[in-house]
Design a protein that fits this description.
9 helices, two-stranded antiparallel ribbon, alpha/beta, 287 residues, binds magnesium ion, binds adenosine-5'-diphosphate
Amino acid sequence: MSLDLIRASAHVREHQAKTFVVKVGGACLAKPRYVRRVAEQLACAHALGARLVLVHGAGPQANECQRDLGEEPVFVDGRRVTTPTALEALTKSTRALSRALSEALEARGSAAQPNSDCVSATRRPPMQTSEAEVDFGLVGDIQSVDADAVEQALDAGMIPLVAPPVPDGSGGHLNVNADLLAAELAVGLGAAKLVLLTSTAGILADPNDPHSAISVLSLSELLEKREEGTVAGGMHVKTSAIEAAMSGGVERVHVVNGMDEDSLLVELYTNQGAGTLILAEPEEVPA
Ligand code: ADP
Ligand code: MG
C-alpha cells in the first residue's frame, strides 16, 4: 500500500492543479452503482489536487425517455435527430444524471456546480449525410465557451458540471454532442487533458474484441483507423472530438473504461495505465 502511494506520488505531483476535462458517457451512469464508481474515482482525483470539469451525456437514458414519451429515437450516421420530444427527453435525462452524479460526489466530499450555461450553441443547418440531406432538428454547434465562469468555479474548489442541452443565446436550448462539448471546453480552458470515460477498455484494435485495447497511439494513427473503418459508431464521433481537442492545443487525450472500479485512477496515477492514451505527435509514442 505505502509502495503504491510512493509510486503514485510522482503522478500526483504532475497532475497537481492541472485542469482535466472528463467526459462521462451515459452508459457509465446507467446504474446507481456505476454512478458511485465514477464519483468515487473523480472525488479521489479531486482530493489529489486535479481541477476537474465534468461533461456527461445521457444517450441510452434519453432514448428510453423518448420512447416513454411515445416517440422512437432516430439516428442518421450515428447522430441523433433532435425533435422537440427528443430534446425534452434529453433535458429530463441529463438533469436526472447530473443530480445523481452531484449527490454521489457530494457524499465523497467534492462539491459539483451545474455550469451548462457557460456554453452557447448555434443551430446546425440541414447537412448532407451518406443517405440524403438531413435536418437534425434542435441540434447546435458550439459557438462559445465562457471559460472565466468555469475557472471561477474551479478556483472555488468546485467541480463544474456541463451537460447538453446548452443555451442557444436567444432563450432556447439545443442538443450538442457531449464528446464535442467536452473537447471545446478542454480547448477553451487550456486543459492539460481530455479524458473520455466510455464503455470499452479504450480504443480497440478490433472493435469485436473487447480485449484488444491499444495502450498508446498517435492522433494520425487514430485518424488512419477511422479511415479504415476500424474506429466507427460512437468512437467515430469521439475521434472528431479528439482531433478538435488536439488541434486546439490539448496535448493528451485518454479513452478509459468508465464502468470499472478503478480504471480512471489507474490511467491517471500509475505507469501502466488502463486505457488508450492518444498523443499529438507520432514520435512521442514509445516503441
Ligand atoms: P459513449 O456513451 O461513451 O459516448 P458510444 O457508444 O457513443 O459511447 O461510443 C463507444 C462505442 O463505439 C463502443 O461501445 C463501440 O461500440 C463503438 N466502437 C466502434 N469502433 C470502436 C473501436 N475501434 N474501439 C472502441 N469502440 C468502438
Ligand atoms: Mg457517444
